Amino acid sequence: MRSDIFIGFSNPRALFAYKYLNSLVSIRDLLSLVTIPSLTHSDVHLNNPTMGCSMYGLNSNFILDKSFPPFIPDPPIAPGTCQFDPAYSGDVCCNYNQSMVLFNNMEIASGMFGKCSSCMTNVWELWCASSCSPYQSTYMVPTNVNNNTNQIISINYNINPIFAEGLYNSCRDVQTSGGPPFAHFYPTYQEFFVGVFVIYNPAFKLTFVYDEVIGYNGSIIPCSELCSCEYCRDSCVVPTEGDGLSFNKTLGYTTFFDAQVPVLSIWMIYSYVGFILTTFTALSMWMLFNIFKRTQKMKWMILVYFLLIFYLSGIIVPFAVGVAPSHSASCTYQMPYNVEWDCSLALFVAIYPPLVALLIICFTLFLYFFKDRLSTMSTNFNNSNDSGYSNITSLYLNDNSPSSTPPSSPKFQGIGIKDPSLIQKMFFVYAKFIGRHPWWIILGTVVFTIAASIGIIKLQIELDPVKLWVSPSSRSAIEKAYFDEHFGPFYRTEQLIISNRSDPSSFIITYDNILTLMQLEIDLMAITVEFEGKTIEQADLCFQPTKRGCIVESVTGYWQRNITLLESIGPAGFNASLQYCQTSNLAPQCMDAIGVPVQNNVVLGNFTTDFMNSTAFVTTFLLNNQPANLTVNEAWEDVWLAKVAAYNKNESFPFHIAYSAERSVQDELAREGKADIPTILISYSVMFLYVSIALGRYYPFPSRISSIFVNSRFTLGLCGIIIVAFSISISVGICSIIGIKATLIISEVIPFLVLAIGVDNIFILVNTFESLHVSTYNASTRTTTRPLPEETLARALAKVGPSMALASLSESLAFLLGTLTKMPAVVAFSFYASVAIFFDFLIQISAFACLLVMDTRRTESRRIDCLPCVPLDGELSDDDEPEKQTLLDQSTNSTYDVTYKKKDGFLKLIFKKYYAPFLIHPITKVCVCVFFVGLLLTGITYSLQLELGLEQSVALPRDSYLQDYFAELALKLEVGPPFYIVIKGAYNYSSIQDQDEICTVPGCKMDSVANIFNNAPYVEPGISSWLDDYIQWTLNEACLSIYQSNGSTCVPPPVDPNDPVSDCGAISVPPTNRPSVQNFVKFIPNFLNYANTNSCQISGLGYSADVDIQDGVIVASKLDGYHTTLRYQQDFINSMKSVYWYADHFHGDFEIFPYSVFYVYFEQYLTIVNVAILDIGLALVGVLVVSLLILANPIVSLIVVLCVFLVAIDLLGVMALWSVNLNAVSLVNVVMAIGISIEFCVHIAHTFINAPKHYTNDEKAKHAVSEVGSSIVSGIFITKLLGVVVLGFSNFIFKIIWTLQIPTTTTTPIVIQTLKYHII
Questions:
Q1: Peptide bond preceding 202 in cis form (omega within 30 of 0)
Q2: pLDDT exceeds 50 at position 534
Q3: Fewer CB under 10 Å: which end of the chain, C or N?
Q4: Is 1084 helix (H, G, I), strand (E, B) or coil?
């Protein structure tokens, strides 16, 4: 009988039959670790009582069909073979020689199964039963025998399916020679037995028959008892998501009429319908109650009760009838929370609440329009407010009306405000002072600007993205610094994703394609570049982990990128060669030329389970990333990119290449920035031109055409733009002096922000000045006089200065509070914006105010704008006459003093005559409330669906070659980015107990570092551990043997039971099977410089970069792993969350942290939601504080804050709706939008508070909207609208600005909430 025949393999799926690998663990050592329950013949053969042998022979080509009784062999069967089982200590069907054949073949098989002791032992159990069991004739049944020679042609092996499945389960996760686990190729035990054990040649055909009655049913040792998590899923301590580990997920969904909708949307819709029901029911009940009070008829109160019941039915019905229908229902809908409703019931519940709301709205409108008929009272239902609107008749009259009586103090004579506040008095006095000394104020402003701008010479621009978005004190920055210090910077990556040009979805692995790929890679590796007089090759720059050459990760590494070798194999042997290497990538002949294994899931793309079905090659060049080599690396990459692009443009080249180099993103962003310059210039030019033109007076059209050149304020507008530039220059100078680095975002966004905010104040100041700088008729002297420009300036600043201060200081403080965040880009932006806005305000109320006085003097002397030295003929009164009108219909013979006013501009006329009256109407107020509550709920719904991240494709030019690369990357890569588990500090690696905290080999803790991370979410199983391989290396005497007596190296003798026992053997020996403390330290250098051989396929050379040894002490080490395929931004964020959480919750005697090159860029997303909330909250706090100080009205201050909050919420909702992710760039724009939204609110709020005291709330609201609404629209709204529309044609940064600022600039109606909440 032959025993070795059962270790042959024939299935081409796996080619495991040809893996003649040396044992990773010696068989005797392996079996010495195994403790097997005591077995008896009856135990082993419970269902098989018949004893007997069925075959005999040692020749692999000739096995006899021979029946004979079991016997006691002499000598006994070889120790360390089937003798580990007591069942084979007596009568057996094999002798010593046969047992040695079995031993030798099982030693070869240990290269496949030895990594899991349970698997190896169970395989021993299988073949010992077939070879030596005294019940062999029951299990091994010949089915075809040569009648002449009695040679067995085919045989059935009867095994119990329970035993077969148990053996498979113990071996399914074992990886062989660096390849995938068995389960990857054989999903079931039937496929496993056929693919691994079935004999095809040379002895006989073997067929496994799974029989529960007579099949062999030996004892199975579960892998969970003896194997580590890496090779046994049942041994894994599966991590559970604990407190703090919550992945970014979309909102929960539920069903609604068989459709999937967010749960929150259902509740928001219900809340909105409930709000409408409540609002209109309350209004109806209030009107009914008033009718009842006037008529004293109970029918109105009965109607109130009926209305209340009707209201409650609309609220309660969706909950009261939400029950499952009977089974007899022929039509059902899947409704929320997976409950099936009858169709008619579901439709009724969906329609009833909105129908109730509609009916109540109609009833409310009916009561409102017919209240006078319904009431028997003669008084108007709404008293005097029903008609709507009071005429502002006393605002500009110098009579004794409450709104125009000047203060009694001579110092404030002419301020034009009754009971002015302290801040108004301060602005009045200040304006009179600067109006008298305009040239000195302007000169002082210029001198201060120049002095502050000197600091620009210290300007530093931060270009490092790590320092831009990550705080130096952040976790990822600290860990990156530690990693770089001990292991060097993460390498630079140049990558190709290659597919067939003719059909990108077709299988790509062919002999010709591999040959073409080799030629391409060799050509790219031969690139040289002239740099500073030297010829630089790839070898001068590349990453060399084994010190034997450059690493290029590619499938061509299976043939060492050797064209001659591949051609010698030829097309006929290509598939067999590839399949062998794919399952034996640790075999020396399958490793890359530099001695590193080729990993299929790294070098091949877009396959399912069969690598041969790949549709993409993935080739990666790695360069060292030392800062000193940055310039030369980029020079070589530049040539590399040009070479690849030339290949890609060649239509005859069979491959389509998606490619990227380390410098690619930076290059493309720079190219994009240059391409945006014309668009940016056009945007600013449009805004500049509009501001300069819009400040002039062109309506009503003057009687003389020449007056247009006088009334124009183009020069003044241009000066306003220069003031914006001054404020930015001051900001940059001051911030540079105090050491705050600028960013490109600051240079692109701050001018836009300051211009938008500053222009609004300019328009308000100029328009207010124009409305006050009018002629006055003195009845006693019967003369008409015009005030001096400086006097008008004092009155104008007293009137609008506080609101300008409120807006500017609120914005400045809001941005200043934003510096409390830890994101450097946001901190820098907040500092620069705060300082720029503050000084823009100071220069506006000083230099610009003086320029306004001077420009007014030019106008009054009828000198041409832009050419002030050229006067025109005529008097100023000639231009004013067509515009002159009194506020009262009085003649110049009146006994009253009369103040004339200029005709309102077109936009102001629209606001005063149409928009303000419409807004004050009661129905409009209710509709506005309802609309904006709906907008708020919608904004909340969408903002909670806001995704994090910044898609690379969004940030890059649309025509960039990287667009194709990132698309292919997401589609075809089958493995995620590499990551490392770093073990900090001088840990005692030589201690077995301490090793058990890290390793995965037998004996290690099930919750060791590697085992925990092997089962963490978003981590690809198979953490590569230098410690595991070092322990395995010390166990294999073929790797290095020593005399146990003195520790010196030796050559082990051949295995022969007749030879005397020698102490020459593996470094590690039983019972610990670990190196001693001395040997652990002594032989680490040998391991880290060891290249694999046929007999020892463990290469320590590849781990040389994983261990940092200083003065003979390991001060840091790392384990290597890969994330699962990360295709979306959420995947990257969640993967980092996962490994961070498990590192933080690892309880060991040492400190660990995970590191990958992308963590430092994505860490912002772990806190960006909190940063956004903090920034928005701080901005609102700043607005509230300044509003309380200046407005001195808590209610209106809170309303201003509420309006700004609504803008922020709605803007976040629009971001989600328009697929703009939350990231550092969009967060900066959200903060900017908050600053701009303040402008929309505070001016109306301030004017509302300072309206004449005898006005009703409706009249105050109308007054506020009429006075400053047009200035806000013409100033900030139209200016920004023009700018952002142009920016819509740009890329990335300004596209984000366009996306976010369009909704901000179109939220003007939101500011009316400042009024509506107060009025209602």
A1: yes
A2: yes
A3: C
A4: helix
Residue pair 536/635 in contact (Cβ under 8 Å)? The answer is yes
Q: Is 637 in contact with 494 (CB distance < 8 Å)? A: yes
Contact 392, 904 (CB under 8 A): no
| The two three-digit tokens of residue 1197, written as one number | 């201050």
Residue 47 pLDDT more than 60?
no
**Structural Rg of the chain based on CA atoms:** 43
Q: Assess contact for 29 and 1073: CB atoms under 8 A.
A: yes
Computed from CA positions of residues 82, 83, 85, 87, in that sequence, does the dihedral angle turn out positive or negative?
positive
The residue behind tokens 């013409």 is: 1274
pLDDT at 906 over 80: no
Cβ atoms 356, 311 nearer than 8 A: yes
pLDDT tens-place string over residues 1244-1261: 888 888 788 788 888 888
User: 716 vs 431, 692, 876, 935, CA distance in Å?
Assistant: 18, 7, 19, 40
Cα dihedral 419, 423, 426, 432 sign: negative
Q: What is the pLDDT of residue 875?
A: 56
The better pLDDT of the pair 897, 1205 is held by 1205
Contact 108, 16 (CB under 8 A): no
Task: Give the whole-angstrom CA distance, residue 1028 versus residue 33.
Answer: 18
Please give the C-alpha separations between residue 744 and each of 407, 899, 1195, 1215, in angstroms, as whole numbers.
Answer: 52, 52, 40, 23
- d(C-alpha 206, C-alpha 194), whole Å: 9
**pLDDT greater than 60 at residue 291:** yes
Distance CA 1034, CA 26 (A): 11
Rounded to whole angstroms, how far apart are CA atoms 186 and 197? 12
Tell me the per-residue pLDDT of 318-370, one tens digit each, with 9 for 90 and over: 776 555 454 555 777 777 767 777 777 778 878 888 888 888 888 888 887 77
Q: What is the DSSP letter of 620?
A: E
- Could you report how far apart the first and last alpha carbons of the chain are, in Å? 102
Q: Which residues on neighbouring strands pair with residue 885, listed in sequence order?
A: 901
Q: Considering only CA atoms, which of 17, 18, 16, 9 is closest in space to residue 185?
A: 16
Q: Is the pLDDT of residue 720 over 60?
A: yes
pLDDT of residue 201: 45
**Interstrand relation of 53-56 and 64-68 (parallel, antiparallel or unpaired):** antiparallel
Most confident of 294-298, 373-377, 590-594: 590-594
DSSP assignment string, 1233-1289? HHHHHHHHHHHHHHHHHTS-TTS-HHHHHHHHHHHHHHHHIIIIIHHHHHHHHHHTT
Q: What is the pLDDT of residue 818?
A: 73
Taking the CB of residue 460, how many other CB atoms lie within 10 A of it? 10
d(CA 375, CA 291): 6
Q: How far is CA 65 from CA 53, 94, 214, 468, 544, in A?
A: 10, 14, 20, 79, 58
Whether the link from the prior residue into 789 is cis, omega within 30° of 0, is no
CA angle centred on 592, ends 591 and 596, rounded to 5°: 70
Side chain identity at 983, as an amino acid letter? Answer: I
pLDDT of amino acid 1298: 41
Tokens of 275: 């709000």
DSSP string, 331-382: -EEEEGGGEEEEHHHHHHHHHHHHHHHHHHHHHHHHHHHTHHHH---SS-TT
DSSP string, 264-276: HHHHHHHHHHHHH
The 3-state secondary structure of 923-969, one letter per residue: HHHHHHHHHHHHHHHHHHHHHCCCCECCCHHHHCCCCCHHHHHHHHH
Q: What is the DSSP letter of 234?
A: G
pLDDT cut 90: percent of the chain above it: 12
Write out pLDDT tens, residues 374-403.
Answer: 665 434 434 444 433 333 333 333 333 444
Average pLDDT over residues 1262-1273: 80
Q: Residue 335's beta-bridge partner residues?
A: 339
- CB-CB neighbours of 685 under 10 Å: 12
Residue 1283 CA to residue 1285 CA, distance in Å, equals 6
Pairing of strands 205-210, 152-159: parallel
